[in-house]
Specification:
By secondary structure, the chain is an alpha/beta fold. Helix content is about 35%, strand content about 20%.
Length: about 200
């Protein structure tokens, strides 16, 4: 079983975190051949206080940085709140400390700005929401921005474009971890149009 931690914060984009959460949760429900579910998916925030996402959706994180199970996969979503996270040393340090330990570090949409501010996209290709290319370029000038792919792989770090691209990114990671046949089960259950 792999632990999938999804960072949540005030003004997070709802589909940025909910789309990947759904993919990894569905994978654990439909892949019955495993002795244990392949993924344990949970939300994490700097504290255990509730989060108010875009549109006023209130979220109660499963855990805080202090009591978070060690993630194998860490997902950093975007949204307007990512601009504040770029300046939050507590969050940036937490991500920097986990980056060498996780199997995969993923960003959705403007979550790439947070990875850039943490110095994790230096000399790497990456993508983000099309409206944030200029900002990512300014905070991480050595990043090669890719504007014509839904997601961009660079070793263990994989970034995706805006909002719904996080679903494609998550399906890709399910395929990388479990194989194409099992990923197809997830895709079919979700009735998702596959983009790659």
């Amino acid at each position: 079983m792999r632990n999938v931690a999804i960072l949540v914060f005030d003004d997070v984009e709802v589909l940025d975190f909910a789309g990947p959460f759904e993919v990894f949760n569905v994978a654990s429900e439909v892949i019955k051949s495993e002795p244990v579910p392949p993924f344990f998916t949970y939300t994490v925030a700097p504290t255990e206080h509730s989060i108010v996402a875009r549109g006023g959706l209130r979220i109660q994180p499963h855990c805080s940085f202090d009591n978070c199970p060690d993630p194998d996969i860490l997902i950093v979503p975007g949204g307007f709140g990512s601009r504040r996270l770029m300046k939050n040393d507590y969050v940036l340090t937490w991500i920097q400390q986990l980056a060498p330990e996780v199997e995969y570090l993923l960003s959705v949409c403007t979550g790439a700005l947070v990875l850039g501010a943490a110095g994790l996209l230096q000399d790497r290709p990456a993508t983000t929401h099309h409206d944030a290319f200029g900002l990512l370029r300014s905070i991480s000038p050595t990043t090669t921005l890719i504007d014509d792919q839904r997601f961009v792989k660079s070793g263990k770090i994989i970034t995706s474009g805006g909002i719904s691209a996080g679903i494609d990114l998550s399906l890709e990671v399910v395929e990388m971890v479990l194989g194409a046949d099992k990923a197809r089960l997830v895709h079919d259950e979700m009735e998702w149009m596959w983009h790659s």
